[in-house]
Amino acid sequence: MDDRAQALAHVVRGGTVESVHRGHLVALDGGGSPVLHRGDPDVTVFARSTLKPVQAVAMLRAGLDLDGELLALACSSHSGEPIHVDGVRRILAGAGRTEDDLANTPAYPLGEDVGATWRADGFGPSSLVQNCSGKHAAMIATCVAAGWPVEGYRAPDHPLQESVRETVQELTGDAAEHVTVDGCGAPLYSCTLTGLAHAFARLVLAEPGSAEHRVAAAMSAHPEWVGGIGRDVSAFLSEVPGLVAKDGAEGVWAAALPDGGAVAVKVLDGAMRPLPVVVAGALRALGADVPDDLGRRPVLGGGEPVGEIRAVLA
Length: 314
Prior knowledge:
This protein is of the alpha+beta class and 314 residues long. The protein has helices at 52-61, 68-74, 82-94, 112-120, 133-146, 159-172, 193-205, 211-221, 223-226, 232-239, 275-285, and strands spanning 6-13, 16-28, 34-38, 44-46, 179-181, 187-192, 244-248, 252-256, 262-267, 298-301, 304-311. The strands form two sheets. Strands 1, 2, 3, 7, 8, 9, 10 and 11 form an eight-stranded antiparallel beta sheet that branches.
C-alpha cells in the first residue's frame, strides 16, 4: 500500500509545503467509470466505520424496522450528544432491550464538548455513549426481529455477522479476503477502495423502498444523526444536496452524489485533517456544487491564517 500511494494533500505554511499526506483515492462517474484517481484505486483497505451504511443494509434485509433519524443513527459514528444517546435507548426499547445488552467497547463520547461535560459530571467510559452504539443497538434489534440470539451477536459466525459479510461482498463486488475486529468489537471486513465507492453508488441509485435506498434517504435527511455538531461529515451531508457520505477511522471517507458519482479515499497515515479538502476537491471533479467552506482548512500561526491544506488531485 505504501509504495503505490501518492500525495493527496499538501499542508502549506508561509508559502512552503510543510507536510504531505499521501494515500489513495478514486472518483467514479454515474456509470461507475473512474474519472479521477490517486495512488492505487484497487488497494485493499479496512474501511472501518465507513462501512456502517452497508452493514445497515444487511440489517434492514434481515428484518430491522428502522427509518428516518434512527436508521441514520444506525449508520453513524455519533458524537454522543443527548439526541444520540436518547436515540440508542429508543432503538433498544423498541426491541425490548436495554443498554445492558450493548457489547460495544466502552468509551467516552466522541464529541469534544460533550466528552468534556461527560467527564466533568464524573462519568467514565460507557458503551451507551461510544460512537458505535447506534450500530450495535440496531444489531441487537435486528437479532430480535430475525429470531437470532442476542448473546454473542458480535461473533463472526453469528447469523447477523454472516449476513453483514455477504452484503459487504455484494455491494462492493469484492471478496472479503481479510477479517479482523473493529474498534467497537464488531467484525470488520476488507474491500477495495473502488469497491467501497461502488457500494456507496449503489445506495443512492437503488430503487425506492429498497434497503439501500432507505439507508441513503435516512443519512441524507438527518445529517446531525450521522455525526454531530461541528462534524465534517454532518456538514457535507447538510450542504451538498442529496449527498450520502460517511467517515471512518484511520483516514477513510466515502461519498456518493444523487447521480451515482462516488468517491472513496484512504489517507495512508490515518490522518483525518486532509479529508474534507480532498473529498471536496474530488466531488467538484464529479461536477458537484460544493460550498467553498467545506473544502477550506486554514493553517494557523499565532492564531491567524498563514497557510492552508491543499488537495493534490491533478
